[in-house]
Amino acid sequence: MKGNIVVGQSGGPTAVINSSVAGVYAAAKKLGVKKVYGMVHGIQGFLADNLCDLDEYLSDETGIEMLKRTPSAFLGSCRFKMPKIEGHEDVYEKVFEIMEKHDIECLFYAGGNDSMDTVKMLSDYAAAHGKPQRFMGVPKTIDNDLPITDHCPGYGSAAKYIATSLKEIIRDNASFGVEKPTVCIVEIMGRNAGWLTAAAALSRGADCEGPDAIYLPERVFDMDKFMEKVKHLAATKHSVVIAVSEGVKIADGRYVCELANENVAVDAFGHKQMSGTAAYLAQAVAAETGLKTRAVEFSTLQRAATHLASLTDINEAFQVGFDAVKAAEEGKTGMMITLDRNGDDPYQCGTSAYDIHAIANVERPVPDEWITEDGCDLNEGYEKYARPLIMGELQPLYVNGLPRHLVRK
Fold this sequence. Notes:
Shape: elongated
Helix content: 25-40%
Oligomer: single chain
């Protein structure tokens, strides 16, 4: 590439999205790209011409290694929805005006479904108006719901955190309950896809029986059957731990969290802000059974735990960023880098570039064949898929007893 490039981050952060930025930077410098700019707060910041020079942070190996160990979005994220092209050409022209101003030849955007929609619209506009600039998507989402790719960078680390935390909660909850069990309900992110909640199944092993039930949004949530399940478990066990997705819905289509609060806020993309599912269910169980209950909501902890990140995830996040630059160098545009599994024993995974139009705005659910017949658990098919993604660790760099992070000035 003769010109400069820019990389941005969008949507919910992850434990490894910064590794993708490191991969983009490393590949660009290997190819001799002069300037690698970072968008400050994604495409929203880019439209305000808010850029930073990544050489200030990553010009030596120490900076790259620190970035790999830093959670969240180093460049800053956003939830900005690009408007429809028709009638808003001025917004798109502004993007190209800024690219030309800084001699930016290619834009790389790391994110999930909505971010890939931004890549699609920008590349479509460029194609329709004869613009030479290129646009590449770099996959990221702990929700793991992007289609085509085998899995998404960010998922493995979030799954590792969830499985680890579930083991610890199970140990804690089992400490009591001599007379009556405590029912602990753990709420896990994921919106309309149950991939993250499914990771609760990975807590099972020789030293842990795992959660007593796992509820995914791929199946309708039946309140009566849920209560029957809890009563049965409470009658036969001295500790009950249940994992539930924030996005479970009852038969009429309402989210369980809406039963407690009908005025659920929505973001720029129309996505409802989910929270309170575990709290609602815990209160319902306590009211009907008289049992002691506890609600645990992992919330943003599950996407910011770089101290517990999967080394496999870190390396693959770096690789998709690196290979996005290689694909752009080959002249590709309007594509996203996918992770392509080539084997399970041993685990092997490569990458390829795929048409963004088949990916943007499409949600991939957990396959039905991996959900048990009663809809309350996962089978070994899921574990075979997910276990390799959580393998390995990258030790944080500790200063004064705490992990050191790379922070933008």
